[in-house]
Amino acid sequence: MEYNWQFSQKSQCSQDDKRECLGLVSELIALSKVARRNGLLSLVPYAEKNSSFLLRKGLQLVVDGVNPQVTRDVLESYILSGDYNGKELLERCIILEGVAAIQKGMHPKVAKEFLLSFLGEESYSFFEEEYEDGEKDSLETYLQRLEDRAASSDLESRLDNIILKLNNDEIEKFLMEINTGDLAKAIKGLGGQAQIRLFNNLSRKAANALKDVIEELDPMEEAEMKEARDIALDILADLDLDLDS
C-alpha cells in the first residue's frame, strides 16, 4: 500500500469512525505483546477464532511461517480487490500494518505509535485516555507484588544492599547513567524494596516503560544477568559512592 495524499483522501472518515478503530489498534497491540512474550505460534487460537476475515487470514499466514512479503502481498490483494473507502479502508490498512509489525517482532510500543498515526492526533489522546488508563493501576499492582520479594542470588543481594543505602539524589544519578535494557536485566532478580526504590525515582511514564521491559525479558542465562549486574555496579563505582559503607 502506498500511504500518500491519494490514500489520505480515500481513507477520509469522521472522528467518530476513527475512534471506533481504536479498539482494533488495542487488539493488535495486545496480539503483538502475546507474540513477543510467547512466540508466533501462541497466536494460533486468535488466528482460528477472530471475527475479522482479514485479521484472521493475516494471523494464519504468520503462524504458518509464510514469508513476510508474501503475507503483505496477500493482504494487500484482499484490500485492493474490495475497493474500500473511508473507515473500511482505514481498518483494513491498520490490520495489514499490525500483522506486519507482529511478524517483524516490532516492539508493541513502536507498533502502537505507527498504528495510531493512521488515526491522527486527536485519536491518539483519546486512545491514551480510553485504553491506557489501566496502566496507572497496573504499576501500583506490580510494585505491591514486589514488596516482600527477596534477592535471588548473592551478587543480586550485594547490588540490592547498595541501592537500599543510596539517597534519592544518588539513585537519580545512577538512573541517568544506565540504559533501560541494562537496568531491567540488572534489577530483575533484586529484592522488592530495592526495585521499589528505583521505580519511585522514575517518572510514571519511565516507570511504566521499565516495567514493560522487565516483563518482556526473555529467560536469561546466568552470564547475561551477571554482565548486567556488573554494568550496574561499575556505574555505581564511577559515581564515587561509598559502596562499602
Commentary on this structure:
The protein has 245 residues and is an all-alpha fold. The protein has two domains: 5-131, no CATH class; 134-238, Orthogonal Bundle (Annexin V, domain 1). The chain is built from 16 helices and no strands. It has helices spanning 5-10, 15-20, 22-38, 44-49, 53-63, 68-82, 86-104, 108-116, 121-131, 134-146, 154-165, 168-177, 180-187, 192-200, 204-216, 222-238. Helix 5 packs parallel to helix 7 (86-104), helix 6 (68-82) runs antiparallel to helix 7 and helix 11 (154-165) crosses helix 14. It is elongated. The termini are far apart. 26% of the residues are buried. The model has no long low-confidence stretch (mean pLDDT 88).
| Outline | elongated
The tally of helices reads: 16
Structural class computed from helices and strand pairing: mainly alpha
Q: What is the ordering of alpha helices and beta strands?
A: HHHHHHHHHHHHHHHH
Range of helix content: over 70%
Q: Quick one: how many beta strands?
A: 0
Q: Which stretches of 5+ consecutive residues score pLDDT under 50?
A: none
Q: Largest sheet, if any?
A: none
